[in-house]
Design goal:
Largest sheet: 8 strands, parallel, barrel
Structural class: alpha/beta
CATH class of the largest domain: Alpha Beta
Order of helices and strands: HEHEHEHEHEHHEHEEHHH
CATH superfamily of the largest domain: Phosphoenolpyruvate-binding domains
EC number: 2.1.2.11
Subunit structure: Homodecamer; pentamer of dimers.
Radius of gyration: 26 Å
Family: Belongs to the PanB family.
Number of strands: 8
GO molecular function, one term: 3-methyl-2-oxobutanoate hydroxymethyltransferase activity
GO biological process, one term: methylation
Amino acid sequence: MAAKTNVHDLLRAKGSRKWVQLHVDSAAEAAAAESAGILVLSCEADHSLPAIRAAAPSALISAGMPHGTSATPDEAVRAAFGALRAGADAIYCSHSPRFIEAMAREGIPVTGHVGLVPNLAAWTGFRAIGRKADEALAVLRKAKDIENAGAAFLEVEVVPVQLADHITRGTAMVTMGMGCGSVCDTQYLFSCDVLGTNTGHYPRHSKRYADFARLEAELQEKRVAAFCAFVGDVEAAGYPERSHEIWMDEEEFEAFAKGATRL
């Protein structure tokens, strides 16, 4: 088994290595990612985390803290320690810098987020962030606030390439780039986009390398066909056959029948 990838490895390699990063939804995806040499993963901090950890023992895993589940920094610290015990190496947090600072003070590696932050899209809409100078400056200020709070990583999502490059060059944090060119320290996509499991909208920055939605539709058709065949077989008395059944020897059944009359 390869050596475990840790926070120090990414920080030490900043500026000299480009990491491939993938958000995974299952242990099967995590195992496939590690087999493909992808050693930076993200996932949700839920019941799937321990299995994902076991499936990708060499990868660094940033587990997402659901936005709003921690109402105070103290609650965030407790939740983060729970995720670390479950197998996470870092905690993704889209909360304010005061939550990040509380976790960082306890030695918890934190991933902040700037640009298009889906949890905060009510304020921005789902669009590229930072095309105008004033908005780009606001993104940069937020990045600096996150760094000052002690974050180790910074997800940079759907911002202009020039802005992502400026942030990456000016910060000690490892930048995780999604939809902002190739200038960040990691190149980050979601497995659902890579595998083509979505049946709806695909972001402009995504790229499909498989069509799992089609394969799943074919599998579903085969499931329905098999279940229909089962129903028809039962209704036509074709199932169960003698080979599917268990029968007592005649003598044993007669002994049982006699004993049953006394109960």
